[in-house]
Amino acid sequence: MSETIVHWVDGKRWDGTGDRTSPVHDPATGAVTASVRLAARADVDTAVASARAAAAAWRQVSLNRRTQVLFAFRELVHAHRADVAAVITAQHGKVTADALGEVARGLEVVEFACGIPSALAGRHSERVSTSVDVHSLRQPLGVVAGITPFNFPAMVPMWMFPVAIACGNAFVLKPSERDPGASLLLAELWADAGLPEGVFSVVQGDAEAVDALLDHPDVAAVSFVGSTPVARHVYERGARAGKRVQALGGAKNHMVVLPDADLDLAADAAVSAGYGSAGERCMAVSVVVAVDPVGDDLVGRIRDRIAGLTIAPGAAPGADMGPLITAAHRDRVAGLVAAGEAEGAALLVDGRDLTVGGHEDGFFLGPCLFDHVTPDMSIYREEIFGPVLSVVRARSYDDAVALVAANPYGNGVALFTRDGGAARRFESEVEAGMVGVNVPIPVPAAHFSFGGWGDSLFGDTHAYGPDAVHFYTRGKVVTTRWADPQTRGPDLGFPTHA
């Protein structure tokens, strides 16, 4: 009998009241390995009520005590990183090294949150007026929620909840129903770290749970990462309900290669960033823009490197790339490959016929490489979210920058060059929220913040880092006067700082 994955409420596993479930697969075999309970609105109400009660007490806990819990959680996640990674690989399909890297990048945000006393420090101005002082402070919102995607079942939640909890909020997580196992491991580690019951909750579910969180009057803010259509829905519905919303959407990340670039470095980067995690990354490079005359040489080097990749189950030793998350998603990606071929792009590497011995029912699709892709083609317009790399030819630097600017997404972009002047100009001119120079996946360090432009972000606040501290708190300014009793008396004039 397969495992049943449940909710986490009041510091323990909870079955909930809903009777709906969804299957969880091992993408490498296609087998159903578990079922996950899908929350009804009543289950969301229960979780939020628990969180609201816990938030009232947690906000009063000293910063020193909060950081002690965070440090303990950091040590526990580090000690159990292999366990978390194993669950990710089993349910998502990504290779073990990639899963371990996901946990490591999530831990960076936990480590940032451990410094929350400094991040929450306010300002103080003495004698802004006679006997008047002013100071500012930031206070928690109460109950906040995170709605997270399947592609990073540990890292993306850890982009959200460490800072939210460190700031004094209670956090309700709604993970993807496709690979929910990591959420319960993280909940257990929070409990072991000493986090009070109710400060961290997990509600398993689908769209019904999402909308229940967006509508709930006691949820003050919602963080989301996922596709652009759902991000737009989350932003609009949450904003109508009066919530703060940061909704990170899809991407079509470009990698511009100038003629002076180190082409071996660029080819390595294109293959690593295009096919890592089977392309199921919001920061994956999906478009290589080859500026004349390097296109033919660069494409040849990319093609040579693809031939050396090992496609296998994520837990297999030496695997470079695993399966996609579901059969339906694999078939969608394969359909887009067929559309690209029909629209006239040159399909140089076709991974649709890949067979992995002993795993014929797994959700595998091999790397695909297109050349001479144009912006009117569906493989360029749509976020494929699979192991498909498109090469677009550009005549000049200016044409490449204009191509990036015309794309509705503005998540991440990379430039490969040896020219410092070109790089400096690119940083200033390119239309994207995150820029890499000879770095193909420019995910910022945890003490910066993560976020794109255009259709890649709805709301004006980026994820983790200083922006997260601002998002999960609200400001208050206090003006005080301790006047000499002998100067008392009514004064109906407008107060000035004199």
List the helices and strands and how they pair.
Elements: E1 3-5, E2 7-9, E3 12-14, E4 20-25, E5 32-38, H1 41-58, H2 63-79, H3 81-92, H4 96-113, H5 116-119, E6 124-129, E7 132-140, E8 143-147, H6 155-166, E9 170-174, H7 181-192, E10 200-202, H8 207-215, E11 219-225, H9 228-240, E12 244-248, E13 253-257, H10 263-275, E14 285-291, H11 295-306, H12 327-342, E15 346-349, E16 368-371, H13 378-381, E17 388-394, H14 397-406, E18 409-410, E19 412-416, H15 420-429, E20 434-437, E21 453-454, E22 457-458, H16 465-471, E23 473-481
Helix pairs in contact: 1-8, 2-4, 2-7, 3-4, 3-7, 4-6, 10-11
Please provide a written account of the structure.
It is a single chain. With 498 residues, this protein is α/β, with parallel strands linked by helices. The protein has helices spanning 41-58, 63-79, 81-92, 96-113, 116-119, 155-166, 181-192, 207-215, 228-240, 263-275, 295-306, 327-342, 378-381, 397-406, 420-429, 465-471; strands at 3-5, 7-9, 12-14, 20-25, 32-38, 124-129, 132-140, 143-147, 170-174, 200-202, 219-225, 244-248, 253-257, 285-291, 346-349, 368-371, 388-394, 409-410, 412-416, 434-437, 453-454, 457-458, 473-481. It folds into 2 domains: 3-249 and 456-477, 3-Layer(aba) Sandwich (Aldehyde Dehydrogenase, Chain A, domain 1); 253-437, Aldehyde Dehydrogenase, Chain A, domain 2. The chain contains 16 helices and 23 strands. It has a 7-stranded mixed β-sheet with strand order 15-16-17-14-13-19-20, sandwiched between helices. Strands 10-9-8-11-12-22 form a 6-stranded mixed β-sheet, sandwiched between helices. It has a 3-stranded mixed β-sheet with strand order 1-5-4, with helices on one face. The N and C termini lie far apart (76 Å).
